[in-house]
């Protein structure tokens, strides 16, 4: 198996991206890695790389704020070249922490969509009281139709089965009320369609229900999903900042902090996006793993693990079968 890694994408590129790839190479010795990016810059950062890591030169970089229209002119950008390696079967998957829009455009233009999928969706694993659960879409589509939410639900179900190992996953629709008629026109109509879809649909859930984890997959449009993720990240960071401030208030609170510190570290680790790695772009005919723009080495390592599992589990074929009613559990 070969995995292409966009060495130049992300806020911490290339050092953290390369370091994460090196760590992955150490724990996944059966995989070959291709670092895609400016060869001179990569070698300046790391003059020596493990034998399982090679470099594929790409001169240009897609900036985070650049329009996807520019991508058509930057065919030598690291994300385009890394995706092309997968298209040409030189690599089996691509991992990037660069521009999400550029990665999506690269995948759509070069891989194409799976038959039966109108739009791809970004699926992420969300930490809950009952472990990681799938949320999609979290940013690919700000406006969708009800039938597209059904497609997301089927893809999310397949992801929960094949990658998270869940049996008959419970699929919910995110709305502003649990009642069947609650929500806007999109969610009300989608609810009716989901009731007859080939999934274990459990109805609507509200935003406050997400942290409890009483579901396996939750479906929403990309605008809502992205807000959920960003609010959760911000709330988690704010909460730990408040706790730190309180624990440092005086000697008594510092002593108390020493007692609860191991538990707090475990909770922080459970809530850290880096532990779950990247989010696969579901619905395209190739494995493309989208990472958080601020990903560090650990997040890249875990994203590579997600890519490996998707390839090993023949995930694209599983989605094709599920969406076209030819398989699934």
List keywords for this structure.
329 residues; alpha/beta; Isopropylmalate Dehydrogenase; eleven-stranded mixed β-sheet; 10 helices; 43% helix; globular
Please outline what is shown here.
The chain has ten helices and eleven strands. It has 329 residues and is an alpha/beta fold.
Query: How far apart are the first and last residues' alpha carbons, in Å?
Result: 26 Å
- The CATH architecture of the largest domain is 3-Layer(aba) Sandwich
The coarse silhouette is globular
Describe the largest sheet. Answer: 11 strands, mixed
- Enumerate the spans where pLDDT stays under 50 for 5 or more consecutive residues: none
Strand content: 15-25%
Kindly provide the name of the CATH class of the largest domain: Alpha Beta
Helix content: 40-55%
Kindly report the CATH topology of the largest domain. Isopropylmalate Dehydrogenase
Radius of gyration: 20 Å
**Count of β-strands:** 11
Q: How many domains would you count in the coordinates?
A: 2
The helix-strand sequence is EHEHEHEHEEHEHEEHHEEHH
Spatial sequence of strands, sheet with the most strands:
3-2-1-4-11-10-5-6-9-7-8
């Amino acid at each position: 198996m070969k995995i292409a890694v966009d060495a130049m994408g992300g806020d911490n590129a290339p050092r953290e991206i390369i370091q994460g790839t090196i760590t992955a190479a150490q724990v996944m010795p059966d995989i070959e890695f291709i670092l895609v990016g400016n060869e001179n810059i990569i070698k300046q950062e790391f003059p020596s790389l493990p034998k399982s890591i090679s470099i594929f030169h790409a001169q240009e970089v897609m900036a985070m704020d650049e329009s996807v229209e520019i991508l058509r002119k930057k065919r030598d950008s690291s994300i385009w070249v890394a995706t092309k390696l997968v298209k040409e079967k030189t690599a089996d998957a691509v991992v990037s922490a660069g521009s999400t829009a550029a990665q999506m455009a690269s995948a759509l233009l070069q891989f194409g969509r799976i038959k039966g999928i109108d739009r791809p969706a970004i699926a992420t694993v969300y930490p809950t009281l009952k472990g990681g659960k799938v949320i999609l879409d979290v940013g690919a589509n700000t406006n969708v139709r009800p039938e597209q939410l059904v497609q997301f639900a089927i893809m999310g179900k397949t992801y929960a089965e094949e990658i998270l190992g869940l049996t008959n996953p419970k699929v919910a629709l995110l709305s502003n009320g649990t009642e069947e008629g609650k929500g806007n026109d999109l969610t009300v109509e989608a609810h009716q369609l989901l009731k007859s879809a080939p999934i274990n649909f459990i109805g609507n859930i509200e935003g406050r229900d997400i942290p409890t984890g009483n579901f396996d997959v939750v479906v929403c449009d990309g605008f809502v999903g992205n807000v959920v993720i960003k609010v959760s990240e911000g709330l988690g960071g704010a909460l730990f900042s408040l706790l730190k401030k309180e624990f440092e208030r005086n000697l008594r609170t510092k002593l108390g902090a020493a007692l609860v510190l191991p538990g707090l570290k475990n909770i922080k680790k459970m809530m850290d996006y880096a532990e779950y790695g990247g989010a696969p772009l579901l619905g395209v005919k190739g494995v493309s793993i989208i990472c958080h723009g601020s990903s560090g080495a650990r997040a890249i390592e875990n994203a590579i693990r997600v890519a490996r599992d998707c390839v090993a589990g023949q995930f694209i074929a599983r989605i094709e079968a599920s969406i076209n009613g030819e398989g699934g559990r």
